[in-house]
UniProtKB/TrEMBL annotation:
Family annotation (CDD domains): Aar2_C, Aar2_N
InterPro entries: AAR2, AAR2_C, AAR2_C_sf, Aar2_N, AAR2_N_sf
Family per similarity comment: Belongs to the AAR2 family.
UniProt xrefs under Pfam families: AAR2 (PF05282), AAR2_1st (PF20981)
Secretion signal span: none
Domain AAR2 N-terminal: 24-155
GO biological process annotation, one example: spliceosomal tri-snRNP complex assembly
Source species, domain of life: Eukaryota
Residues spanning the membrane: none
Protein name: Protein AAR2 homolog
Length: 401
């Protein structure tokens, strides 16, 4: 398989490994071209000549993503990703469609035939083991990613790719950061061959308003409501998530995974919208939604920990897949994350009375941002605001305009 795939399995005794093969799911992938960059969860591989898929996949939700090479292997198509939920001993079969350059499902009859062959171990030596050493990382990134969250958001057909986002992308608000990101996603992949899709197949993300709008209150009150977006959070939770906090956190994880691993710009914009909403609340974490914010901080802690490491191990795939991990722009203090994180953490860390779990999580997050991003989050640090950022604080003028 040409990658770091089997650390845990290599140390297992044969009986334990066989039991895992029987109980774990199998993803059988037929005819995938050599040198295709293939990923499942946090694991990324360069496909070798014998590759037929992954075995020992733990039950639960997973994200599969790949980008295929050109004939000469020096260019790659845009990443295509999809979610699936595996069950004990389940076999999922996909086959490479050469003309469409993507994985497709088989007829029910063919799938049964191949599944039975897998269960007879006919493909066993061509299946790479799921690296159980990294499963803990994936569980931290997908802890609220239930099948219902996936079904609610995933596009028709299930495939997530920037190739289907071209028309939306041209309308997206673009800060300097996002312009750099767009260029990075578009750069010399042969996207022009597949991006002119007539139908839009985007995800069904929740609409997150950038600001509070209200006709019946004063400009001062409206400004305060936009500086502390607790009321906006309550409105979004009630209208879009039936009051279920975990659904919102699940969408936050869904958008992060499809952005970082699936290289979706649409997912980045949704992740930014959700992050911006939650980090702009001060009443909710301290008083009305403390438990939710303990969970939220834990979610973004692991997103920052696993997604934004400067020395992310996927670099061993020769920069061909997941090119977002090392963009130095993420570590700059002129992006939205710096300002929002600094203000949010100061609200919690400087509060006279604060929940112990919330305080502990906030301190952990502050330490991670300071060590991973190299940020100075103390009060004397500059409070930089990107004026082009639609999620920056809204100050309402007194002339009533």
């Amino acid at each position: 398989m040409g990658s770091r795939s089997g650390g845990a399995a290599a140390r297992m005794d044969p009986e334990a490994a066989t039991e895992l093969v029987r109980k774990g799911g199998t993803l059988l992938l037929l005819d995938v071209p050599q040198h295709t960059v293939f990923g499942i969860d946090t694991q990324v591989f360069s496909v070798g000549p014998k590759f037929k898929g992954i075995k020992m996949v733990p039950p639960g939700p997973h994200f599969v993503y790949y980008c295929s090479p050109s004939r000469h292997g020096n260019e790659f198509a845009p990443t295509v990703g999809f979610f699936l939920t595996t069950h004990t001993s389940e076999v999922i079969v996909r086959k490479w469609h050469a003309q469409e350059e993507r994985l497709v499902t088989l007829s029910e009859e063919e799938e049964i035939r191949y599944s039975e062959a897998v269960k007879r171990f006919e493909f066993d030596d061509q299946l790479g083991p799921y690296n159980l050493d990294s499963f803990g990382d994936w569980k931290q990134l997908s802890s609220y990613l239930s099948p219902s969250v996936i079904e609610r958001i995933e596009p028709i057909g299930g495939e997530i790719t920037i190739a289907y986002e071209t028309s939306w992308m041209d309308r997206a608000p673009q800060t300097d950061m996002e312009k750099r990101l767009m260029e990075q996603l578009r750069e010399d992949k042969f996207a022009q061959n597949v991006s002119m899709q007539s139908e839009r197949r985007g995800c069904y993300y929740t609409t997150i308003p950038a600001s509070v709008k209200h006709k019946d209150i004063s400009a001062d009150e409206l400004t305060l409501m936009n500086l502390d977006r607790t009321s906006l959070l309550e409105s979004v939770l009630a209208k879009s998530y039936q009051g279920q906090e975990d659904l919102l956190l699940g969408e936050l994880q869904f958008s992060f995974i499809t952005f970082m691993m699936g290289q979706s710009l649409e997912a980045f914009m949704q992740w930014k919208a959700l992050i911006s909403l939650l980090l702009s609340c001060s009443e909710a974490p301290l008083h009305t939604r403390t438990n939710m914010f303990v969970k939220f901080i834990r979610v973004i802690y692991y997103q920052f920990k696993h997604g934004f490491l400067r020395t992310h191990e996927s670099r061993s795939i020769e920069d061909k897949g997941n090119s977002l991990f090392l963009d130095e722009a993420w570590f700059s203090r002129d992006i939205f994350l710096y300002r929002l994180s600094k203000d949010f953490l100061s609200v919690i860390l400087e509060a006279p009375v604060v929940d112990g779990d919330l305080l502990s999580r906030a301190r952990e997050l502050k330490t991670l941002l300071e060590t991973t991003f190299g940020w100075d989050l103390e009060n004397n640090a500059a409070n930089l605001i990107d004026e082009d950022d639609e999620f920056a604080p809204v100050v309402v003028e007194m002339d009533g305009s």
